[in-house]
């Protein structure tokens, strides 16, 4: 058995085309039509058939670009199409005042229906992890399994770092900087780690009609939603469960999936497994190869 199969089961999939960005801007009936990149596998199999897609979902302040490398790797190694999506208020997807896990799940469910995806594997990191768990508990028929990366189905306060990031991004916008280096200098007051600053600054863009850099994410909406991002919309696992396979990948240097959370995970997701990876909260970017293999230290 390939070590990759520890993470996501392989399937035969549709024929190769180059990854293509598909941008959807409308919001209809409160459901945002999500932007996405589609990564298709190499056309090496003689017999190809559609199905078994993987849907990759980023975390707070992230975008589909963060999942580009791992999506290409999984498409190649597992021979499955990988959809890397932008959640609402992130990347190229629409901006909406409402930002909670029910709304995020409804958007993803709408995406699955819109693209007629069957037997999907949903993979989410952090905010994306709670989103895929919410989809699984709301609409279990839309997916065959899920992978939650460093988050748990509990109400748990976000690290104070996220509030600092909002402060830093607000200061950058109020300073009307024209260079990325100036924005980084400001952000150093709020975050020492260069990789995290670079991650946050991927959201900084230069509008066509202005020299002043702006964040493409609606900071006002996301700041107001931080408390909602700490919550989980389901409280009683006796009322709802996901009876299909669920893999919980956690960073051993992160606090988001502590051992004491495992019993509640098991009640909501009775077929769950755990993989520990020696990493912090940013598991995939820190240890992409370990994540690909699904290996524990």
Name the features.
297 residues, eight-stranded mixed sheet, two-stranded antiparallel ribbon, disordered N terminus, alpha/beta
What does this structure look like?
α1 (68-78) links the parallel β5 (54-57) and β6 (82-85). Helix content is 33%, strand content 16%. α4 (160-175) packs across α5. The protein is of the alpha/beta class and 297 residues long. It has eleven helices and twelve strands. The model is unreliable at 1-27 (pLDDT under 50).
Topology:
Blueprint: E1 20-22, E2 27-28, E3 31-32, E4 36-39, E5 54-57, H1 68-78, E6 82-85, H2 101-114, E7 120-125, H3 127-138, E8 143-149, H4 160-175, H5 180-187, H6 194-201, E9 204-205, E10 214-215, H7 219-224, H8 226-230, E11 246-251, H9 262-268, E12 272-277, H10 283-286, H11 288-293
Parallel strand pairs: 5-6, 5-7, 7-8, 8-11, 11-12
Antiparallel strand pairs: 1-4, 2-3, 4-6, 9-10
Helix pairs in contact: 2-3, 4-5
Going across the major beta sheet, what is the strand order? 1-4-6-5-7-8-11-12
The residue-averaged pLDDT reads 88
* Number of helical segments with 4 or more residues: 11
Described by strand count, sense and barrel closure, the largest sheet is: 8 strands, mixed
Shape: globular
**Span between termini:** 19 Å
Computed CA radius of gyration, to the nearest angstrom: 19 Å
* Portion in strands: 15-25%
| Secondary-structure element series | EEEEEHEHEHEHHHEEHHEHEHH
Q: What is the total tally of β strands?
A: 12
In which range does the helix fraction lie? 25-40%
Low-confidence stretches: 1-27
User: Structural class per helix/strand content?
Assistant: alpha/beta
